Amino acid sequence: MIFDRYVTFHDKSNRKYDPKQHKYVGDDTKVVKLRANVTDLGTEKSVQLFGDYKRRALVIRLTKEPPAKWSYLTLDGDSKKYVLNTMRNPLKCYTLIVGESDA
Fold first, then answer.
1. How far is the C-alpha of 41 from the C-alpha of 6, rounded, in Å?
2. Do the Cβ atoms of 69 and 31 come closer than 8 Å?
3. Per-residue confidence at 28, pLDDT binned at 50, 70, 90?
4. How far apart are CA 103 and CA 91, in angstroms?
5. What is the CA radius of gyration of the chain?
6. What are phi and psi of 41, to 5 degrees?
7. 3 state SS of 51
8. Cα-flanking dihedrals φ and ψ of residue 55, to 5°?
9. Residue 4: is its pLDDT beyond 70?
């Protein structure tokens, strides 16, 4: 297993809705950047978990524990955001199953 990608965890709890501006204000906070092994979740498993194969789901394996509080993650500085669906902690590493975020 090669850990050749970087996963950046972000937290958007600092963002608050401003009724005068009619939008959210404040920035997302970068929590931590970790090396990861990233693979696609198969079509069959994606249908079993989400009932849909059109949404892109990824399996992310980390050697270090992910942060306790985070809202979404990005891969290698890409603009696509992924949110947590499931997290597992097998013997050697941490496994996250994430799906693309609509927001």
1. 18
2. yes
3. confident
4. 33
5. 15
6. -85, 130
7. coil
8. -75, 130
9. yes
**CB under 8 Å to 79, separation ≥6 — which residues?**
none
Percent of the chain predicted with pLDDT > 90: 48
pTM for the structure as a whole:
0.81
The predicted-structure confidence for 29-71, as pLDDT tens digits, reads as follows 899 999 999 998 877 776 666 666 666 789 999 999 999 999 9
Taking Cα atoms as reference points, which of 45, 32, 39 lies closest to residue 74?
Answer: 32
Q: In b/e form, how buried is each residue of 51-81, taking b as 16+ CB within 10 angstroms?
A: eeeeeebbbbbbeeebeeebbbbbbeeeeeb
The span from the CA of 81 to the CA of 59, in Å, is: 14
Q: Are 7 and 60 in contact (CB under 8 A)?
A: yes
